[in-house]
Amino acid sequence: MSIQKIEIPENPSYQQLQELQYEVTKRMNVLLEIQINPVSKTSFPKFIFAGTNAKLNMPTLNGT
Amino acid sequence: MSIPQLKNPKKLSYNELREQVSELARRMNILTDMRAVSISPTGTPKFNFSDDSATLDVPSLEELTELTEDCEELGEELAEAKKTINCLADKLLPKELNGSLSWSYSASSTRPDYGPPYSPTNPEPCTKTITSNIQVEFVSGIELKFCREDNRIPEDCAATGSIDWSISLNKDGSNAIPITWSDTPNGQQSCATRNSTLNTTYYIFAAGLNLNENGPPQAYRYMGSFFVSSAGEITRTVNTVNEFIEGDPLPCGLVPEPEPEEE
Fold first, then answer.
1. Which chain B residues are closer than 8 Å to A45 by Cβ?
2. Residue A4 maps to a domain
3. Which are the contacts of B253, defined by CB distance < 8 A and separation ≥ 6?
4. Nearest CA of chain B to the CA of A2: how many Å?
5. Does B255 touch chain A (CB under 8 A)?
């Protein structure tokens, strides 16, 4: 299941700003660890961004 | 169009910080929804990050796989076609154009039924197929060696037919070289060496003789030619005649094409 979008308040308070900054940083770190997942050559490519990991299903000639 | 890069000043006011973090979060949301899209197998993989969406173009292997499978099927069809071509080539061309058995001729010979009692002097009626091959080789000087090999099937059939080869200096069959062959068993060669004229083309003819006992001989058929150079190199030609009997299956598994419908 994909991660939910970040809610962005129009005029965030300092605390909300902190939470936003924290969430963006956390997600950025997850993106930095994105994994390429080889899948069957007949499968469709797919990007999956979960809360704790991000992966890209990539069709390959030898994928299963 | 790609999204512009974020400015990244070292010092931000509180309002600027709010805007910066909000923009980061907005862009992160776009990235979160990134879609991977199949594109043509010849396309270039590409990451697109616009102001409202992010996509990753991935060349499709499915179409490539289909093309590969098509190629494999075509390869199989090609292999079958090559088999047919080789089969036809075997039937139409001698096995070794530049070696032995360069020209081949076949005929059917029949021993008529003269009625019983049958004996060695009055054999039973039968029909045999005679296949004769002939070759020529340069020996040395001006000498050419001719060899022929005959096969008669069935061998014990007493039909008296034979195949005659004529090697002539003229294409009309005249001026033939006299060659005396010995009567050899199936599969054995009879050879003769003759002086020749170099830089000359020789013409080869074949005919069945006495195929049905006392019947008329066949007309000589032109089988091909060979040219002997001054260095003794022999260049051969083979005259190929295709004979098909209506109603008989075509050779090499060929299927006749349907006749076009008349308009």
1. 36-38, 56, 58
2. no
3. B84, B87
4. 8
5. no
Residue B248 has a CB neighbour count (10 Å cut-off) of: 8
Domain for residue A6, yes or no?
Answer: no
pLDDT band at B222 (very low <50, low <70, confident <90, very high): very high
ipTM of predicted assembly, 2 dp? 0.84
Determine the Cα–Cα distance for residues B95 and B98; give it in Å rounded to an integer. 9
What's the pLDDT score for residue B98? Answer: 46
Cis peptide before B94 (omega within 30 of 0): no
Contacts of A35 in chain B (CB under 8 A): none
Domain count for chain A: 1
What's the token pair of residue B11? 């010092």
Residue with tokens 């002539």: B168
Nearest-Cα distance to chain B for A45, in Å, is: 5
Q: How far is A24 from chain B (nearest CA, A)?
A: 6
Residue B46, token pair as written in the block: 């590409």
Residue B33 identity: D
- Give the model confidence (pLDDT) of B172-205 as tens digits: 999 999 898 888 888 898 999 998 888 999 999 9
Domain extent, residue A35, equals: 14-59
- Residues of A with CB below 8 A from B34's CB? 47, 49
């999956």: which residue's tokens? A48
